[in-house]
Description:
Layout: E1 2-10, E2 18-26, E3 29-38, H1 46-64, E4 69-74, H2 77-84, H3 92-105, E5 109-114, H4 121-129
Parallel strand pairs: 1-4, 4-5
Antiparallel strand pairs: 1-2, 2-3
Helix pairs in contact: 1-3
Amino acid sequence: MLVMEFDGSCKNNPGGSGGYGVVIKEDGRIIDELAGSLKARDGMTNNRAEYIALIIGLKYLKAHYPEHSIICRGDSKLVIYQMTGEYSVNSDNLFDLWKRASKVANVMNVSFEWIERERNKRADELSRRKMTV
């Protein structure tokens, strides 16, 4: 079982540049980390950055660990609960990303779990480190 923790950040919410961070763990030990910058553009928000982090992490896991069961953990209740179906996707600004994330997740053995921000520090650190000015 692998655990993927993800986070996304947007410097000026909305419309600022952002970053994403993904931490992949096995048996509590970090085995991979992904991080990158997100360009400032109209419509970029913290929630979009969170979804982008999730999608990047899921695609990476699908390519590198296709047979593993995965728990995806994030500190965004909105993203996690939209992925579990507990919340509906009411924002046109998020629907495209939810659809992309769902498409990848639906062909994997994956579950989603909300965690408190304090338990997501490494992914948060990676996402903030990659934000540009």
